[in-house]
Amino acid sequence: MFLQREDIPNLISILRILLTIPVVWMLLIQRFDFALVLFAVAGISDGLDGFLAKHFGWQSKLGGLLDPMADKVLLVSSYVCLALLGLIPTLLMVLVIVRDLIIVTGALIYNFRIEELKANPSLISKFNTFAQIVLVLMVVLDQGLFELPQGVLQAMVWTVFVSTIASGVNYVWVWSRRAADLRGKS
User: Fold this and answer.
1) Residues near 101 by beta carbon (within 8 Å), at least 6 away in sequence
2) C-alpha to C-alpha distance for 17 and 13, rounded to whole angstroms
3) What's the CATH code, domain 5-185?
């Protein structure tokens, strides 16, 4: 089976998942300069695969799964590494992981018990993902590459903390209501 042009966004997402390995390694050995470059490449690839999929109509169900999975694998792995290194609070790492587990579990249950899931990320969820990415970048930058004021880092930790909770509650609320409405109609 040969790759088609339509497979390019999915291939980019797969490569982003694989790119997590060297990002994690660079973080763990505290080569923050290389980790930052690799994280930036991953971010650019995220934008590129989304642009290609939408611009050329190369969207697919597989891509709809691979793209957010690649984002989550990279972010969760980065949060685990940064928490292990003592650079972010362990509680924040746990909160990010628990939120993602709740969302994935809820999505699977909804998809198989209610109806096919057509998930569109909420505005708060998009903000939360953006804030999580910015925090990783800020923490990595602060590790000898560019010292940031401590208050700025603390503010970003709290922003991620609050937006993670708000996003998780929003998902549970919206999808629970939607499921209840559909069950009430049947």
Assistant:
1) none
2) 6
3) 1.20.120.1760
Q: In the chain, what are the domain boundaries?
A: 5-185
DSSP conformation letters of 144-169: TTSPPPHHHHHHHHHHHHHHHHHHHH
Does residue 58 sit in helix, strand or coil?
A: coil
Alpha carbons 41 and 51: distance in angstroms, whole number: 15
To the nearest 10°, the Cα dihedral for 180, 181, 183, 186? 170
Global pTM reads 0.89
The model's pLDDT over 137-176, given as tens digits with 9 standing for 90+, comes to 999 999 978 889 989 999 999 999 999 999 999 989 988 8
Instruction: Give the Cα separation of 76 and 132 in Å (integer).
Output: 10
User: How far apart, in whole angstroms, are the C-alpha atoms of residue 149 and residue 170?
Assistant: 32
